[in-house]
Every structure is written in structure tokens, then in C-alpha cells.
Write a structure and sequence with these properties.
With 130 residues, the protein is α+β, with helices and mostly antiparallel strands. It contains 2 helices and 6 strands; from the N terminus they run βββαβββα.
Length: 130
């Protein structure tokens, strides 16, 4: 992945999210994003896109952890205030006659990511899993 230079001083810094919920009968995930400057902004995302967003953030977190380690190895001062979230386990289940499997990714005590995967997508996923 190519690293892009950013001027972080010109960007809004995300502190976290709260007041997380759903809209349109569960079709959308909504959250209020809290910024470091104290401002907040409501955001919404279609439920089917949440997994891709979370996996992208986890991937970027892993790359950032490796970059921090590389910088530390070069003697640069590195703030280790963040850590990569490790996947504890992955469980999959399906009920007889169901048209999907339920996939749960456990990322910590009480923190789970749950996905409903249509059965016709399972073979393609199995090919990509090493």
C-alpha cells in the first residue's frame, strides 16, 4: 500500500462515536461522531457496508502499528498510545434450512462483529481464506 503524505493539522480529528443506533428498520446504522475540537456530526451508513468499513479500519490499524514499529526501530520517537485490536476467535453457525451463515468475529471481551453471509457467497469466501 502506498503511503500518502497528509497534513494532519488541516484535518478534523476523530475522537470517537457515541449515540450509536439504527434507522429505517435496521437498514441504516447511525452514529454521532465526536471530534477532538468538541464538535459532533451525525453519520449514517447502510448496514451492508459496516463490515467493509470495520475491516478497512482494522487493516489500517495493523499497517499503522507496523509503521510505528519501523519508525521506532529507526530511533524515531513513537507514541505507542494505540494498539492493534487482535481477533480472539471466529465462529460460524447456520440453522438447518437457513439461507445464510452467521459469522461472529470476537475482537475482545464483550466486543463482537456479527455478519450474516448468504450461503451462495460462502464458497468464494472459503477460496480467499488461507
Amino acid at each position: 500500500m502506498k503511503e500518502t503524505s497528509f497534513d494532519l493539522s488541516t484535518m478534523r480529528q476523530l475522537r470517537g462515536a457515541d449515540e450509536v443506533g439504527t434507522a429505517r428498520d435496521g437498514q441504516a446504522v447511525v452514529m454521532k461522531l465526536q471530534m477532538e475540537d468538541g464538535s459532533a456530526e451525525w453519520m449514517a451508513m447502510h448496514h451492508a457496508r459496516v463490515g467493509r468499513l470495520v475491516s478497512s479500519i482494522l487493516f489500517a490499524s495493523g499497517v499503522a502499528a507496523a509503521d510505528r514499529q519501523q519508525a521506532a526501530d529507526l530511533g524515531k520517537p513513537v507514541d505507542q498510545g494505540t494498539t492493534l485490536v487482535d481477533i480472539v476467535r471466529i465462529n460460524a453457525a447456520s440453522a438447518p434450512g437457513a439461507d445464510h451463515i452467521a459469522l461472529r468475529v470476537v475482537i475482545g471481551e464483550g466486543a463482537n462483529l456479527d455478519f450474516r453471509i448468504p450461503l451462495d457467497l460462502v464458497p468464494a469466501l472459503q477460496e480467499k481464506i488461507t
